[in-house]
Amino acid sequence: MMVLDVPELVRQRAMSNGAAGQRWLDSLPEVVRALADQWDLTIGQGFSGGTAGYVTAAVDSSGMSCVLKVAMPLDLNDERDAFQRSVRAHQLAEGRGCAALLAVDASESSAPAMLLERLGPNLSELNYGVPRILEAVTATLRSFWRPIPTDTGLPTGADKAVWLAQHIATSWTQLEKPCSRAVIDRAVLYCDERAAAFNVTNAVLVHGDAHGWNTLRANDRTFKFVDPEGLLSERAHDLSVPMREYNEPLLVGNTSRLTHQRAELLATLCGVDPEPVWQWGFIERVSTGLAAVRDFEGDDGVAFLEVAERCL
What we know:
By secondary structure, the chain is α+β, with helices and mostly antiparallel strands. It has 2 domains: 8-117, 2-Layer Sandwich (Phosphorylase Kinase, domain 1), CATH 3.30.200.20; 130-310, Aminoglycoside 3'-phosphotransferase, Chain: A, domain 2 (Alpha-Beta Complex), CATH 3.90.1200.10. Helix content is 50%, strand content 13%. The protein contains 11 helices and 9 strands. The protein has helices spanning 8-15, 18-39, 76-93, 130-144, 157-174, 181-197, 235-238, 240-244, 255-270, 274-295, 300-310, and strands spanning 42-46, 53-59, 65-71, 101-105, 113-117, 204-206, 215-217, 223-225, 231-233. Strands 1-2-3-5-4 form a 5-stranded antiparallel beta sheet, sandwiched between helices. Strand 2 (53-59) and strand 3 form a beta hairpin. Helix 5 (157-174) runs antiparallel to helix 6 (181-197), helix 6 packs across helix 10 and helix 10 runs antiparallel to helix 11. It is globular, with a radius of gyration of 19 Å. The protein starts with 7 loop residues before the first helix and ends with a helix.
C-alpha cells in the first residue's frame, strides 16, 4: 500500500470529524493510487499548509509537473458543494490569477479530486513580511477579479453573509462562549449589513480565501491563487481574509488603530471603500477564530478572537 505523509493539521481536521474523518484517512492511500493510475501520474512529496484535503506534487506522463488535490468530504453535501464551487471558480478564472485546472474527478467516490498547474512557493515560504504579503495578495486579487454571469451557480455575498451569521451564533453557543457576547453581536450585525448591501451590478468573481499561504509564485513578477472558494460578491469581501490573518502585529500596541489602518491600506490598494473591508474582516476574524477553537489545537483561535475583542 502507498505510504502518505499526511500533514498534522489535515489529520487533526479529519480526526475532529470522528468516524467520517477516520474513514477518509484510512482510504486516502488507495484513493491517491487510483487517481495516479487514472491520470498516469508519478506521485511525489506531499505539501503541508492546507487543512481541507491532501495535496501532493506529481508528474504526468509527458513530464509536466502538476499538483494532485484530494478533497476531504466529511459532510458529504456541504463538502461536495464546496468542491464544485472551487472547480467552477477555477474554470471561470481560466488560469488568470489562479492555478490552471487540468483535470477533475468529481465522481461519487469517497474523495473528489483535482489536477492543477504546479506553481512555486507561497508568500510565507518566501519569508515575506506582512506589508509585502498584503501588497502581493491585493495585486493578485486585482488580476483575479472579473465580472461573471449571474447564473454560474455560485453563492452570492449576501448568501455567504447570512450563512456566516448563523454559523457564528451557533458555533459560539456550541463552544461554550469562548469570547464575549458583544463580539458575536457585532459580527452578526455586520453580516446583516453586508447582506443588505449586496448589489449584483458591482459584484465580481471572488476567491474567498485569499491569504499568503494560498498565494503562490507564478513567475518572477506575478503570483497566482490556489484553493478558491468561489463567490459572486463585492471586491471588499475578498479583502476580509488578509484582514483577519497575521494577528501578531495587531496585538502589539493599539490593536483597534492598527487593524483600522490595515483596512484603509487594503482599501486604498484595491480602490474600494474601507468600511466594507472593516466589516468583512471582523466577520471573518470571528468566524475563523471560532472554527480554529473547534477544529485545531493551539492558541490561534484565541488570537483571532482577542483581536476582535480589542476592536469593539
